Amino acid sequence: MAKPKVYVTRIIPQAGLDMVHAFCEAEVWEGETPPPREVLLEKVRGLDGLLSLLTDTIDAELMDTAGPQLKVIANYAVGYDNIDVAAATARGILVTNTPGVLTDTTADFAFTLLMAAARRVVEAMDYVRAGKWLTWGPTLLLGRDVHHATLGIIGMGRIGQGMARRAQGFDMRVLYYDPYCRREKGAEFGAECVDLDTLLAESDFVSVHVPLTPETHHMIGAEQFKRMKPTAILINSARGPIVDPDALYEALKNGDIAYAALDVTEPEPLPADHKLLTLPNIIVCPHIASASIATRTKMATMAAENLIAGLKGERPPNLVNPEVLESK
Ligand code: DGY
Q1: What is the CATH number of the domain that holds 22?
Q2: Residue 268 burial by Cβ neighbours in a 10 Å radius (0-12, 13-18, 19+)
Q3: 268 an active-site residue?
Q4: Whose CA is nearest to atom 6 of ligand 1?
Q5: Helix or strand or coil: residue 85?
Q6: Residue 10 annotated as catalytic
């Protein structure tokens, strides 16, 4: 029997690729950057399955270009805002993601950003590299304490809970706001559920952990920065467009908040000449919160498992749109 045809939009860790190659007739885009739109549209024609990345826009046009035989889109990410899930559901296409495996790795990194911003680690390294380190100084590179400070978590899903758990080890007071009202989620970490305005006003660190949806787009903008403490530090390891970048620039420049540490930006990648990068009080990383060897390998095997299950007509373990199966 002919193997199902699939396209993998980037080189993923080998363990996942091996699984895909064993079950499918697979082509892999080997470029360092995502396949251009016109290439992707060409490559999806006649596919049975697609293993996509968060950098690929998977919309109705692409699904229709692929054709009615397209069964499954396996996203190599927990977030799937790059996929028009409603369009996939309407066409009976399964969509999957990679939840769970990256929770601790991403929370580790969000906490790393928090600490690096609080204690000005990147500025300190630049200072040493620039040959400015002349002596020990009583007022040299003073930062802010993390222990006993207040952490405000926006979004108490898996990664938000991971942040709360880490904060306990630093004796932090933890506040959280969850747009989905998961009020019970914070109780085991001694965290207090509050409204967004209270969280913004009382937190020393505000860490964003909601998915990107039309409701969360630019949910942190000029008005929210005005409500924050002038000493506050913003951490975003969720999705760039949750924070309005122009408002963030103004807030950092005018001292509405003290610092930002971002793993995700709008746009992404952030051009090297972007105005945010002219500021001294910001850390920007290239969307690497889940980038540990072990986690990225697990994400690869998980995406491959989801893809193969969908191609076999089985229920993929991490199905985002179960309605597709329910309607069959
Ligand atoms: C995700 O999975 O959504 C992250 O942003 C990348 O691992």
Answers
A1: 3.40.50.720
A2: middle
A3: yes
A4: 77
A5: helix
A6: no
Residue 31 CB-half CA count within 13 A: 10
Do 219 and 259 share a structural domain? yes
Q: Which atom of ligand 1 is nearest to the CA of 80?
A: 3
Best residue among 80, 95, 212, 290 to mutate for probing ligand 1, ranked by most atoms within 8 Å of CB: 290
189 and 120 share a domain?
A: yes
Residues 52 and 130 in one domain: no
**What is the mean predicted confidence (pLDDT) over 308-326?**
97
Same-domain status, 129 and 174? yes
Per-residue pLDDT tens over the stretch 214-270: 999 999 999 999 999 999 999 999 999 999 999 999 999 999 999 999 999 999 999
Q: Which of 12, 78, 216 to mutate for ligand 1's pocket (most ligand atoms within 8 Å of CB)?
A: 78
Q: What sections of the chain are H helices per DSSP? A: 14-23, 37-43, 60-66, 85-90, 103-118, 121-129, 158-168, 196-202, 222-227, 245-254, 293-312, 323-326
The verdict on 36 and 95 lying in the same domain is yes
Same domain, 137 and 247: yes
